[in-house]
Design goal:
The structure is a homodimer. In chain A, the strands form 3 sheets. Chain A has an 8-stranded mixed β-sheet, with helices on both faces. Chain A is an alpha/beta fold and about 425 residues long. The first copy, chain A, has helices spanning about 10-25, 40-45, 80-90, 105-115, 140-150, 165-175, 200-205, 240-245, 275-285, 295-305, 305-335, 360-370, 400-425; strands at about 35, 95-100, 135-140, 155-160, 165, 180-185, 215-220, 250-255, 270, 340-345, 350-355, 375, 390-395. Helix content of chain A is about 40%, strand content about 15%. Chain A has 2 domains: about 5-45 and about 310-425, Aspartate Aminotransferase, domain 1; about 60-305, Aspartate Aminotransferase, domain 2, CATH 3.40.640.10. The longest helix of chain A is centred in the last third of the chain and has 30 residues, at about 305-335. In chain A, strand 7 (about 215-220), helix 8 (about 240-245) and strand 8 form a beta-alpha-beta unit. At the A-B interface, helix 4, helix 5, helix 9 and helix 10 of A face helix 4, helix 5, helix 9 and helix 10 of B.
Chain lengths: ~425, ~425
């Protein structure tokens, strides 16, 4: 292992020549690999096909609300599905609305309603304000940023630290600026850094003074049960913390079964204060007579309860852990102690966050693409697609088969090394 | 049969006494019947339980797009589902977006996007205009009117005639007023009148000059295949008519399988010009990664094609026709030639529209409710819930078992007769 930053020009050039040779060899294989998407792989999809047996034609289809799940009704979902999510999120089922197949839609719809009508407690619909701003801890999730960009919000980058957003900065900003209406958070096994917010960060978010009367924490708890190890991270309950801090309406918690059962054919929910739930339920009633209750019943019949979900997630972990481990091993073997990169080793979720030396990320992704391996575009993890230091790359190890993953990651490391040397030589455009 | 309007006071009072006696007898039975909702009955729901066998665990789940329906993707739906709806709506599948379980949601979302961003061809997002107005042919569907009321649109009542909206009035209004941005239509077996728009009306809607550059016809073709007889109504294709008239972007056509398979667990679609589809698809991509493709596959595996849907709808008709006939028979037996009411006898759909003498509808619904039979609130079929003549009542015969339907309709007719006599006597408050 060699610290590249301590090599002289001659040593660097020698290393570069060797690496270029390897790169050309790999390039000549005409690879076509995709490392860009946080998608489950086929083996994971197969884990849930037995769910399709439910509800079977001999089912009575009557929910515990006493409603026929085959007919209209229940705009906020069936009682059994509320209870399942309540158990997973450690809240009361009266704090839950169960929707259709997408938690992203529930977030989008919440923001669309905030713009048009205001949220519970809003003095003014957000669209009537001179501007709306959102805090975007970064690196973060591009689809979050895309929504707030679409609605024309000013997005303010806040650094994502090892235990959550930089709370000193967050507290200062929200206390001063009434146009800052919300913050995006993926609090557990965060996308892409993999970190889990500390209890102190959760408490600080719940307690902080906000200039906006209707400030909301968009708490995308997408990976709540998506552990890779037997010693999972623990996340403090934001809704309870907000109730305790006297700010019960601040928390909007979202999750789904997209990466538990089927992406796109799962069920999603929002958990929030009773005021938020009542307000959302009322407005949702104009949009739909109700969500797909049959799919909710299907999920409950199959997963049963939080214990059932936990057992099911262990099966996912058995498939995913070796993939993550392989990425960690290759990164470590090729890049450790070279002083040109750092990366996270999350205990759950779908991503590994990788930082190059400043100014190298775009070049690495481009070089990998030219050899046939697609990574998430550099910059995608920041608002407006602009990583100010051009260093963050999101690695998504779940979809490719393990042999492809090996090839892709070996190429990736070669690219990182080549680009870093060029950077050190002052030869990177 | 007696024309009530030709009876003298003494004769009316004698009739009233007899009717009051019957009413009191019925009231003493403590009925609890619901005639208010356009919901399928249990026998209808049972027709589709075999759909739950699809896709079965041994399916390959690969759509004809080559995509695994269990995983993320295809924001506009799977090719097979597009083809099914294309066949039903007689359009090309490139003109289709298949969504989740609710066509109402797709209409709501279209209006929400129009407000926030504008539609294809809009010069200005609707929310930035001093006002937005919508034409509301009435009687019509309360959930349509509820959406446009929620968004603060001014709703302009246009009379619903026997072959569609009063086009003379429609043409005049849309030509003059650039703030009139749309019209609600249920063009086939309309809710509640049961009429189907004539070819002339469809052509006139397609051709008319509109002051608004982005005028839209919200064409809720909810009952497109919902025939009750072997001589179904034919509806001219609005999208083709709009293309022919040089106004291709004017038509937004919606339908769903809610009353084909399961209400709430069906699949919905929008059909429109390629410009509208591209614009909608792009914005929908911010809201969701895709609809529930598994439920789309489930529907296609079960219904197969338009022919399969037609066969399936015949089974519904066999259940519903006797219910509609019973309502027609009771209305005719009790009210024909009394000169106090008129009603429609639709060849499809879910409703019968009933007009009392002016000023009587609220009183009839109230009286029926006091004897334990709930009808849709009088006025609900008009914008703001206000029927200017207080005469329209929507009768929904599908949900109750046939014996309950008989009791409910007999009571209804008694109430109509009592209220009409009071009206003729000048004794109705």
């Amino acid at each position: 292992m060699t610290d590249y930053t301590r090599l002289d020009e001659k040593e660097l050039r020698k290393e570069l020549d060797q690496l270029n040779e390897i790169y050309d060899q790999i390039k000549s294989q005409n690879l076509k690999l995709d490392m860009s998407r946080g998608k489950p792989c086929s083996e994971q999809l197969a884990l849930s096909v037995d769910m399709l047996k439910y509800p079977d034609p001999t089912d009575n289809f009557i929910t515990s609300d006493g409603v026929d799940a085959r007919n209209y009704g229940l705009v906020d979902g069936i009682a059994e599905a509320k209870e399942l999510f309540a158990e997973i999120l450690e809240v009361d089922s009266k704090n839950i609305i169960v929707g259709n197949n997408s938690s992203l839609s529930m977030m989008y719809d919440t923001i669309a309603r905030a713009m048009q009508f205001g949220l519970y407690g809003s003095k003014t619909p957000w669209s009537k304000l001179p501007k709306v701003k959102f805090l975007c801890p970064s690196p973060g999730y591009d689809r979050h940023f895309a929504i707030t960009e679409l609605f024309g919000f000013e997005m303010i980058v806040v650094d994502m630290l090892k235990d959550g957003p930089d709370m000193e900065k967050v507290e200062k900003l929200v206390a001063e600026d009434p146009f800052i209406k919300g913050i995006w958070c993926i609090p557990k096994y965060s996308n892409p850094t993999g970190i889990t917010f500390s209890d102190e960060v959760v408490d600080a978010l719940a307690k902080m003074k906000t200039a906006a009367e209707d400030f909301r924490i968009f708490w995308d708890n997408a990976y709540v049960v998506h552990h890779l190890t037997d010693t999972p991270d623990r996340l403090k309950n934001l809704l309870s913390a907000c109730y305790e801090a006297g700010n019960p309406d601040r928390a909007l918690i979202f999750t789904s079964t997209s990466k538990i059962t089927f992406p796109g054919a799962g069920i999603a929910c929002m958990a929030a204060s009773e005021n938020n739930i009542a307000h959302t339920k009322k407005l949702t009633g104009f949009r739909t007579i109700g969500p797909d209750k049959m799919n909710q019943l299907r999920h409950v019949r199959f997963l049963k309860n939080a214990k059932g979900v936990e057992e099911h997630m262990k099966k996912h972990a058995r498939i995913l852990k070796p993939k993550f481990d392989q990425v960690f091993n290759i990164l470590s073997a090729q890049l450790k102690d070279k002083n040109i990169a750092e990366w996270t080793e999350p205990k759950g979720g779908y991503f590994i966050s990788f930082n190059t030396m400043p100014g190298c990320a775009k070049a690495v992704v481009k070089m990998a693409a030219e050899a046939g391996v697609v990574f998430t575009p550099a910059g995608a993890t920041f608002p407006y697609g602009k990583d100010p230091l051009d260093r963050n790359i999101r690695i998504a190890p779940t979809l490719p088969p393990i042999n492809e993953l090996k090839t892709a990651m070996e190429l990736f490391c070669i690219c990182v090394r080549i680009v870093s040397i060029k950077k050190l030589l002052g030869e990177l455009n």
